[in-house]
Amino acid sequence: MMSVAAVQAQQKVPAAQAKTMIAKINAATKKLKTIDASFTQTKEMKMMKDKMTAEGAMHYDCRGNLKWEYTSPYYCLFSLENNKVTVKADKSKEKSSIPGAKMFQGIAQVMMGSISGKGLQNTSEFDIDMYTQDGQWMAYLSPKKPRFKRFISQMRLFFDKKTLMVNKVVIVEKGGDRTIIEMHNMKTS
Questions:
Q1: Range of 47's domain?
Q2: Could you read off the pLDDT of 3-13 as tens digits, one per residue?
Q3: pTM of the predicted model as reported, rounded to 2 decimal places
Q4: CATH number at residue 133
């Protein structure tokens, strides 16, 4: 006879519990000065059977600066520093600035907010629903504004049970494609 282990489904939490969860996450991330981590990013596209995977490292600081560096299978550095977006596509070439790139800045700010957990404070940009599953906390962010709605259907943030830091981000795009970012070796100060 076969036994089947029951898996707890994701449960949306009531508003009062969601508010408490968000307050605990904000308290945990409020003390952050820096976050350094490696990451694995997987792109799942409806039109392709194979997944695309990239690896790299990221650095975030509380002044709002972000460096997102892909190291495999290609090199690319994306950074936001002092509200200036730059991209360096090859180790041997100069960085190119993207002046007035409001959309890139918006995406970078969403990414920083996702990694730090501070994105849960941005209720003017996103509807936020909190979930639990097997003790793990999840935040589902659905964009309210057209600048994000054109590209993103939903962002899902998964929080480490002990540190309350984001350890996984799932971006569901308008067409159903997904980008999954898993953080590893996270160091904070």
A1: 11-188
A2: 344 445 889 99
A3: 0.84
A4: 2.50.20.10
